[in-house]
Structure formats: structure tokens, C-alpha cells
Amino acid sequence: MEDIKKIIGKNLSLLRKRKKYTQADLADILKYSDKAISKWEKGESLPSIDTLYQLCNLYGVTLDFLVHEGEYDEKKEFVMRDNSKVNKIIITLLSISLVWFLIIILYIYPYVIMSLNLWILFIWGLPFSFLLCLIFNSIWGKKKYKFTILTFFIWTLLTSFFLQFIFLNQSYQVWAIFLLGIPAQIAIILWSQLKTKK
To answer: Between the CA atoms of 58, 62, 64 and 67, what dihedral angle is there, to the nearest 10 degrees?
Structure first.
């Protein structure tokens, strides 16, 4: 029994450090004292089976992971896959594909019926796609990606307006529209540097 306590303790410590939790952080999550966490990790005592189950869910591993010796990479078979991240990416891509499906319908109809080539619709698909990425990223994405997506959105939007004027054969000095992107890009860079309170 002593050996199993030591193995579980070592694995609990490994998993906690992988998640970058302190013992105090974990104690807050589990509603235990940090001394109890320390005893578990030293193999002096074992958490209850309910707590072990809670820890397995927190770390995304099975109970087998906790009772087997070895490093994390040696026990990949006991690590649970996080399907929620994959599902979020698929939902985002499905939404973007819907935008492109609608654009293709809007392109095909005038092309077949009136022989009108509205290629500009495909250009407008880019800022709309980045807008959807921005929306889904703000719902469940990471803040670090928001600014990159926002940059692509702004520049594809400006490019779409520029090409729209060319498409309409307007003789204005449309290149000047890109000047709007400069203060917008500076604002995005500055915004990305704002520090938030922890």
C-alpha cells in the first residue's frame, strides 16, 4: 500500500506542475488545505475516491494514469482526449463554410441567368470569414489570437472596399482607403499590449 501511495503522490505532483498550479491553487479548487495536497503528493496519505475522480477530471487522465509509474509521455494511453476543442474548431469552420456556400450561390445565379461575373463576392468572403473567426474566438478562443484575427479582418475589409471600387470602374484615388488601416493597426497593437489584472 505504501508503494501505491508514493506512485499516486508522484503522479499527482507531476500533473499539478503540468497544469502550472501551486498546491494552494489546487487546494482552492478542491476545497482542501494545501497541507492535505502536500501529504498526498508526498505519499503520506491518499485522497478519497471521490477526490481522486475529481482530480482525474481536472487533469484529463484516467485513474490508471495515477496508479502507474512512469513519465507523462509514457502513459499517453491513460490521457483522455479533449474533444471540446476539436468541436469548437469544427463549429467555426462549418460557420465559415456556410458563408462561402452563400457566396457561391450568390455568384452562380447572376452568372448563369445573366452572364454577370460578380467575382468581387469572393473577395468579400474573406472579411466575413475573419469576422466569424473573431466572433467565435471571443466566445471560446484565446485572447492572443484575437489581435491577429482583427488585423486580418481590417486589412481584408479595406482590400474588399478597394477592389469593389475597381470593380465598379470608379476613377477615384481609392488607394487612400488603405490609410485607414494605419491608425487601426496601431490601435490593435496598443490594445494587445494592455495588461489586465489577475
So the answer is: 0
